[in-house]
């Protein structure tokens, strides 16, 4: 008996399913299983994964968006030294022809001929044209290239710019104050900077340690 009832019930159910295809009204919402509201210890390992997938809350990526900080562009930068501007005639009057050729016409002294190539006394190297201190003796080294070499300049005294003359691209260095040509800078220097300021002796004067710049000439 029981079996018969069961079978009938089943048949009805199946029939219902079949005919209900067109109107799936009652069976529609079936959020039963996933809800598993309070499963005491229901597969704790799978739970998290489920939660991650289901949880509609987006990753807290929005949190990462940092407010745009306006950089303090107006940093207390050092005031650039005023440029020294002279006419070419004035430069010619204060420089020797060789100095003028190098400093004002971007010339280069012959290798191994400059007076500071192998000069290693303590002191400061200043711009021959305007007296601005450019390099300290402790940053000078013997590069063997034939010109005085430094791995560092005194801060804010040397300008660098691209120089594509003579069929090659180099980085020219000039005195920031008078624009006088000093030489070129290369990246084959020693530590700590890895730079080589290759400078014409004729572009510089030397102030021995203990004497103040200005007493140069
Ligand atoms: Zn200068």
Folded structure, characterized:
The protein has 217 residues and is of the alpha+beta class. It is 23% helix and 18% strand. It has a domain of 98 residues: Peptide methionine sulfoxide reductase (Metal Binding Protein, Guanine Nucleotide Exchange Factor, Chain A, Beta Complex), CATH 2.170.150. The protein is built from 6 helices and 9 strands; from the N terminus they run ααααααβββββββββ. The longest helix is centred in the N-terminal third of the chain and has 18 residues. It is globular, with a radius of gyration of 41 Å. Zinc ion binds next to loops.
Number of helices: 6
Based on CA atoms alone, the radius of gyration comes out at 41 Å
Shape field: globular
With strands numbered from the N-terminus, the spatial order across the biggest sheet is 3-4-8-7-6-5
Number of beta strands: 9
**Gap between N and C termini, in Å?**
128 Å
Category by helix and strand content:
alpha+beta
Largest sheet geometry: 6 strands, antiparallel
Strand content: 15-25%
Spans of at least 5 consecutive residues with low confidence: 1-34, 36-55
How much helicity do the residues have?
10-25%
Determine the mean pLDDT.
78
Name the ligand types: zinc ion
CATH architecture of one domain: Beta Complex
CATH superfamily of one domain: Peptide methionine sulfoxide reductase
In CATH, the topology of one domain is named Metal Binding Protein, Guanine Nucleotide Exchange Factor, Chain A
Order of helices and strands: HHHHHHEEEEEEEEE
Instruction: Tell me the name of the CATH class of one domain.
Output: Mainly Beta
